[in-house]
Write a structure and sequence with these properties.
Blueprint lengths: L4 H18 L4 H16 L5 H19 L3 H7 L1 H14 L1
Helix pairs in contact: 1-2, 1-5, 2-3
Pfam family, one: YtzH
Organism: Bacillus methanolicus PB1
Protein name: YtzH
């Protein structure tokens, strides 16, 4: 059973929050972020204003997957993570 739009937003926000709070994460989490963002971007019910944020999160996940030091990469994006979590919370 596929996740609803709201479930996808909640999961996306949870992963971003964990990266922000824990300052660490895994490649599989970045891959999950990438899949969630792709699905949300393809959803016509998603507000166009949030698609810019989703594109930024997609780029973050792509760079995270390719990073040789993922924890350092996550730490260097703390400010962006906080902003994205805030944006996603406003969406839900």
């Amino acid at each position: 059973m596929p996740l609803s739009h709201q479930d996808q937003v909640n999961l996306l926000t949870d992963i971003l929050s964990n990266h922000q709070l824990d300052c660490c994460g895994s490649v599989s989490e970045c891959e999950q972020l990438e899949r969630l963002v792709k699905s949300l971007m393809d959803n016509n019910n998603v507000n166009e204003n949030i698609k810019t944020v989703l594109q930024e999160i997609y780029e973050y996940s792509r760079h995270g997957i390719q990073s040789s030091d993922l924890d350092r990469y996550i730490e260097s994006n703390q400010e962006r993570l906080a902003q994205w979590v805030n944006n996603m919370n406003q969406l839900s």
